[in-house]
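Q&A log
Question type: sequence-to-structure
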Amino acid sequence: MDVALIVLAVVAVVALVVLGASVRMVQQYQRGVVLRFGRLLEGVREPGLRLLIPFVDQMTKVPVQTLVLDVPSQGTITRDNVTIGVDAVVYFRVVDPVKAVINVENYMIATSQVSQTSLRSVIGRADLDTLLSDREAINAELRAVIDTPTEDWGIKIDRVEVKDISLPEGMRRSMSRQAEAERDRRARVISADGELQASSKLAQAADAMSATPGALQLRLLQTVADVASEKNSTLVMPFPVELLRFFEQAAGAQQAPGAQQVESARDAAGDGQPEVGEETEEGTRALPAAVPEGRVDGLTGATTAGLTTDSAAGRR
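Response status: OK
Response body:
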């Protein structure tokens, strides 16, 4: 009786072990690939409880959710001979579990190596300016390059993003100076454009004020009011331009008759007397046409002596 109980107990334990070895659970985010005596069975095991033949069937579970692969920084040289370090991140998922198990030993390591080599090759074909300004094109090219070899492994590349680009310190300083010079140029262009527009508006305002003299006076009074509102100790009062023009015209009108009289007197004096330096028939020199009244008496004696000496020399 005891032997029978022991046998039943052993059989029950063996049955439980066999039952436990034959039942496998597949999660919702997994798919099962079964090999029987090393040979692939058709079909993929869906999520749930699945029965296998113990010690005969071997099932490999493959996750089908999106996986994130971090690509370490790769030191590369761009097409314009700039050494940089670039790291990226790859998002992919398994679309064919059979290929992921049969066609490649470890699809995670294989995808990582392909991502690193593809990153180096793509960066080497691009310029530094393209890497910094056109990230979308670089990401699209990386995705296409990585997706080509992984397609045979049952892997679909969803996205590839370049995370960071490490530049040398000298290149950073050069780019900083370039950006500063560009901002300075834009500021000067904007300032010059503003001055051009302001000069155009000032010219239009000057034309409008010249057509209406009262507008200039109103502007003058407004300027005085603005200056006086600042509570300054000194008030600068501009002098009207029209008043200066009036005085100029009045002064010109008074000087015109006097100038004409002086010219007439000089012409009359010149007709009756010989010019300076002209010799007469007696060989004497003529006096100047016009001598100031205050100097006539002083010049009489000297002039007479000179005339006498010249006449005597002529007679000899």
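Response note: Residues 2-62 form one domain.
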